[in-house]
């Protein structure tokens, strides 16, 4: 595969993820958020199981109890992210959700500083300030105009960052990225279905009305896009991959405008631009510095 082909594969993955925000929003016209999360990740678990079976056949050592505990913690973090994002979409727009969720790339290194005691790259601090400025502008210059959904989505970005950190540790320990994905999908599905059964009504008619969105997010966003990301990143550089995958937020905003008629003012667009620049800076600046030191 050429680098151009790999970049196109990554662009397709970002577009699929961007479309997922629209599907998550429209599904809740028919079904409760926790039923949607539970069914979505149940589908995702089933989709990825054949690939997990093939991965297990090549595994060099069995999983330990500590590995399974790590998988469980990763799944709980994923559930927290999925739940706060889905609940946030009840009172925020797809555009806001897609850009605010993308702030996990800023939170990941901050979590590494607090919990893993890793020295951060200097770019983290200006990027964090830029991201906060972007949220302020997204509110129209008044934090009181931010909805509860916007604040929930900030919490969601923290959960995503925790999930990425935990998954990264688990991958390094086990070498089983697909197994980790299946485990976290299954944990999220079980937790969401338990909550849904306790607090939300359900009917076959509701499931049928939201079936398209459930299958799209379960099969494509969680299954196909993950595979495309893994494939594409093998044949392109990390900086290019970071730029292309970050376009998920742009696809989410564009599709929200095209399919749902969402709009925002000039300050909102400026805020999105600031948040997007913060995401790119956190991804690109450390990698470019590393590449220069290697070639020097």
Automatic annotation (TrEMBL):
Signal peptide: none annotated. The keyword Transit peptide does not apply. GO terms for cellular component: plasma membrane. InterPro entries: Diverse_Substrate_Transporter, EamA_dom, EmrE-like. Its main location: membrane. Residues 7-139, 148-281 form the EamA domain. The chain crosses the membrane at residues 33-54, 66-87, 99-116, 123-139, 151-171, 178-199, 205-228, 240-261, 267-285. Pfam families: EamA. It is a multi-pass membrane protein. It comes from the Bacteria. Coiled coil: none annotated. Keywords: Cell membrane, Membrane, Transmembrane, Transmembrane helix. It is found in: Cell membrane. This is Transporter.
